[in-house]
Design a protein that fits this description.
345 residues, mainly beta, six-stranded mixed beta sheet, 4 helices, 19 strands, 8% helix
């Protein structure tokens, strides 16, 4: 039986581009193996879960009552669902934008660098300084960049500090010769807090949302349960955003296009029983927790960590899913406060 929709405790399971400098025009409410042990400075995907990190007190990636952890399996389908799915491509296939090895010579997936307590902070300068959190940011010289050091893509840098229970995220990040960094935008998140960014502010994502909570991590899939919504992208979006998103990055007012923050859900009727164990765990999360539109990019692309333990062949099962297998849900009724990610149980 499906659980009642709402924000629920995750039990014993650990949790894991275009930019616009101006505020949005409007706001609407609407595995197969165990993880390795933690080692300071290692990527999150190669460390223990946040709840067992060795460098400080237990740290969960956002509280259990946060909207990222909301069970949306029983929410009503939004009235614009068919239009949004059609705009993203009902016949287009889903794509896991993460895995192991290299794709076209570049690392595959979103790297997350875990730092120990006391990691020195460095100065970061921003293109969108008015919408970025000031540093210093505890970025080690060994921090990994999305796509590799020579990437011409989004170049996200995500630093996870379990001792302080914070995430530091950069977009379009470049390291300077003196050890400082420059970036398009940056955001700092207290992972024990449900506070959202200032309305109209971007983050390292176009939607003004944190990236880390929406990444599929190897450890949680290997443990058999992903307890949060998954970050996805769309090739065309509207100049609008829905709670909990805080920012839009589009000039289009086309009502058929999804706003940032749109919550998608894999339909209950979709048979996932024949998928590989890795793909099935992720598909079950898409059915229960859904996916949140967080950035501009290829439609139906799902984000996860860069990790050599992923089986690309197993993850490829997710490509059998297509746009018509998804629907949009109306999450507005879960909102407690427009400036908080806390949601009604």
């Amino acid at each position: 039986m499906l659980a009642v929709a709402g924000c629920t405790s995750a039990g014993s399971h650990p949790r894991a581009a275009a930019r616009s400098g101006a505020a949005s025009s409007s706001v609407a409410a609407s595995g197969d193996a165990l993880a390795a042990s933690a080692s300071p400075g290692a990527p999150l995907s190669a460390s223990a879960s946040p709840a067992t990190a060795t460098s400080g007190a237990a740290c969960t990636i956002l509280p259990a009552g946060d909207i990222w952890h909301a069970d949306v399996s029983r929410l009503a389908v939004a009235r614009d669902s068919a239009a949004y799915v059609a705009s993203m491509g009902a016949a287009k296939h889903a794509h896991p934008d993460f895995g192991s090895g290299l794709i076209d010579g570049s690392p595959f997936g979103m790297p997350v660098t875990t730092v120990p307590a006391g990691q020195p902070g460095v100065r970061v300068t921003f293109q969108y300084a008015g919408e970025s959190d000031k540093g210093p940011y505890p970025i080690p010289g060994s921090a990994k960049i999305e796509g590799g050091s020579t990437s011409d893509g989004d170049r996200h840098v995500i630093v996870y500090d379990p001792s302080a229970c914070r995430a530091y995220e950069l977009y379009a990040a470049y390291r300077n010769s003196d050890g400082s960094w420059r970036a398009g935008s940056g955001a700092v998140y207290d992972l024990r807090s449900e506070a959202l960014r200032h309305a109209g502010w971007t983050s390292a994502d176009a939607a003004g949302l944190p990236i880390l909570p929406g990444l599929v991590r190897y450890e949680e899939v290997a443990a058999g349960h992903v307890d949060h919504a998954i970050r996805i992208t769309a090739d065309r979006t509207r100049n609008n955003y829905l709670w909990p998103a805080r920012h839009a990055a589009s000039s289009s007012t086309d009502p058929a296009l999804p706003p940032m923050g749109t919550r998608f859900r894999l339909k209950a009727s979709v048979d996932v029983s024949k998928l590989s164990p890795q793909s099935r765990v992720i598909a079950e999360a898409l059915r229960r927790y859904g996916a949140i539109l967080a950035d501009n990019g290829s439609s139906w692309y799902m984000s996860g960590t860069q990790d050599e333990r992923w089986s690309n062949d197993a993850l490829n099962g997710l490509k059998t899913l297509q746009g018509s297998d998804f629907e949009v849900v109306d999450a507005a009724g879960l909102m407690v406060d427009a400036n908080s990610g806390a949601c009604r149980g």
